[in-house]
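User: I'm putting together a small comparison set for a docking exercise, and I want a reference complex before I start. The sequence is below, and the ligand is hypoxanthine. Could you produce the 3D structure with the ligand included, as structure tokens?
Assistant: Of course. I'll restate your input first, then give the structure tokens for the complex.
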Amino acid sequence: MSEIKKLIEALPKAELHLHIEGSLEPELMFALAKRNGISIAYSTIEEIHQAYQFENLQDFLDIYYAGMSVLINEQDFYDLTWAYLIKCHEQNIKHVEIFFDPQGHTTRGVAFSTALFGIDKALKKGFSEFGISSKTIMCFLRHLSEEDALITLNEAKDFLPLIDGVGLDSSEVGNPPSKFKNVFASAREMGLKLVAHAGEEGPPSYVEEALFLLNIDRLDHGNRAMESESLIEELKTRQIALTVCPLSNLKLGVVADLKSHPLKSMLDQGLLATVNSDDPSYFGGYLNDNYFAIQEALNLTKEQIVTLIKNSFTGSFLGDEQRNKYLNEIDNYLKNNA
Ligand code: HPA
Ligand code: ZN
């Protein structure tokens, strides 16, 4: 294995853009379908892999929402999250800030608390067994109304100790951030962190709305912000972290190939870019696979990899003490392995 790959594996990392429902591996999907007596569209793993070929975001979302139909009981959400944490442990991921889609479950009759409690139980075990710290971010589905999002935020009020932030995901084009201005303002008043997917497929104006109307603390994807000098400047000045997802971008046609991915240019322009896996079961790789692929495609240097990994902690919602602890661990590793 090359030296740079060893470095990627060895350094402690944080993952800031991970939809827990998107970590549902085919094997677990089959097992849960059987356990819950639910029929799914596939009969073999092979069929699943054939179905996971996407032209765009909506192609993926249709299959992603169908996949989550096997998640019914708290134990299912626990098993799902635990499987992801085992991957984190294997990949030396020390901190995770995971998304879940409450409306993807409540619209099917699964209670908000069922999903949240199952996820939370696994996260607590991840901390006690592996020392992996975590934050939980509930995303609003942007193809639904703001009223629906407000109802979901209201449901979250009973569980605020378990929730750190809100996000915005699902079908971007036609559902601009401005549609969710009120619900984001309410979430802010409740003390929650704010993030939003913007500029994945949507135009730079959506990133602008996320920054100026929603007042986000962090930007998910943000690729198309690179089309605007003034947005780049704003992201740089505010030091807003971008949670970039290389293999996702490739699989959803956001970039034609990884060699034309804007990650290096983001770093060159002083943006706080991070690497993440988004929906690893659907896009063919967990966090380290994303680092390996983008490092090779863009020929990123050791220094650039270290910057990206440090950014994952700098851009996290950890408090200063924990953030510095991880950053020091990275520096110590580099010192001892120079
Ligand atoms: N974009 C928008 N919505 C999503 C994604 C994504 O990459 N993954 C899961 N929901
Ligand atoms: Zn995402």
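The first strand starts at residue 13 and ends at 19. The chain has 17 helices and eight strands.
User: Thanks, that's exactly what I needed.
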